[in-house]
Amino acid sequence: xxxxxxxxxxxxxxxxxxxxxxxxxxxxxxxxxxDFNPLHHDYDFPQSKQLKSIIVHGRFKYASLGELVSNWLGxxxxxRKISCQYRGMDFPGQxxxxxxxxxRKSEESGEKIVELELWTQNAEGKKTTPGKAVxxxx
Amino acid sequence: xxxxxxxxxxxxxxxxxxVDIGDEDLARDPVNETMIRxxxxxMGDNNPVYTDAEAAAASVHGGIVSPPSMLQAxxxxxxxxxxxxxxxxxxxxxxxxxxxxxxxxxxxxxxxxQSYHRYLKPGDRLRSTTRIEAVSGEKATALGxxxxxxxxxxxxxxxGEEVAWQTFRVLKFKPAERPAAAPSEGQSSAPAKPxxxxxxxxxxNGWWWEGIDAGKLLIQKCSGCGELRHPPQPMxxxxxxxxxxxxxxxxxxxxxxxxxxxxxxFPGYDYPLICALVELSEGTRLVSNVLDCDPGDLQIGMxxxxxxxxxxxxxxxxxxxxxxxx
Lengths: 138, 326
Description:
Chain A has 138 residues and is an alpha+beta fold. Chain A has helices spanning 23-33, 46-51, 58-73, and strands at residues 17-19, 77-85, 96-108, 111-121, 131-137.
């Protein structure tokens, strides 16, 4: 299961990570992360009313991309950088599938570096949170 | 507060660029296993390097670490975020208020990037400074017009060593107007959608539009040399013959080039509007629209399938959709 530097190839897919955060999980996340923006838990908040729903924390999706990469990387290396764009909103109780693939594998100044393309995809197949990551192997 | 003119507002916005939002912020708690456990529980993340000392000792980290993407949790204010009156005033809250007071009341995060120089361990005590790096000009977006604000937060540990940084971008926007009240019974909900511009039809191209009305995408073919051409023209550019016939396209094409229209929004069109130059398998190209495709998924050379559809009760147009491969 665990990958090694040698076994990584450009074009490899990362095993998908499935999320379906419930309202309860988002409330727990608000407490666990300190992100208490009411848009993520309060249906009476004006922006929630306008959207007719609360929305999943962007930071929750960002952290899910981090989890996806860490699961794939195992304990063989470290994440150096993750970036993402928030292109679309996700809502509680809906599927979020996190995916990724290996864009580039290279050795630079003695470091074993892999660049990844990442995304979260909603039930309609739209990539709501595309991103990138850089990881360094031991 | 009275609304400022756009020039006045943008002058005020410019004064925020390049400034630190306030003094260095000190994390309320050192990195600790309890908060890590709560965060992992919220995420549903069972990775043992965050909670199991034995497993963590065997990893590259040599002991329990905080999940890298938990970084901001050590600095976020928590429940105060739900009550702006309790938030510590900073140049950033001042900037947001200035925009809110001028009608840009909505806010969404649009980009986040974090770079980790090392993983944090229990006992680390973070401090951070945040700088407003840029405020954009006024932009038209799907949510409404607004301004993008870029900030950069630099995180240091108890020894003053930089351990991570984050760039974050938000959009402060004027919510686009939505249909007000529910329609009363018997009335249609929205005003009739304005019709699109009509295509000019003349002596040389009217036959092509009649083909579209009949559900056929026609391609002009020179009767002299057999060369195909589009858009319709009276004379062949290759052999100068003015005799021509037409063939029907099979409807398969590739995306040759495209642009995504964002602004200004012409009435009658749906946005984002993907305007594409499609190369048909017969070899000619035509300008059309790509439907049911996220602009981010467009790729030059992607396969497209023709569909001829009614845009309103008078106008038929050829449009394309991505070919889905399973």
